[in-house]
Amino acid sequence: MAFFGSCWLAILGFFVFDSTKILLPLPHIDQASQCVVRKNEDAWGYIATAAYDTLMYLAMSLRLASLAVVDSWQDQLKSFVTGDGLGWLSKVLLRSGQLYYL
Questions:
Q1: In angstroms, rounded to a whole number, what is the distance separating the alpha carbons of residues 45 and 12?
Q2: Which partner from 32, 71, 77, 92 sits 20 to 30 angstroms from 24, CA to CA?
């Protein structure tokens, strides 16, 4: 929980830094159109969000798959993908989480 909390704070930091970077230097104003021209120079916040979502998806799916009543690791891997061997509620949670993150 501490790991995912710190990842969430890092993502928040990326977006706060990116949004304050807009306000600190005044952007160039094009005299012809009187519009503010701003170039987005990095995508670290979006990359961090994608990595966080992937890690969260894997952690939740592995945790739910570990609840399966199976004997071998192959069956546990199968339950990770299909939900076989899980109870009704765990299977619904696994599939809805997979659909959300995919």
A1: 8
A2: 32
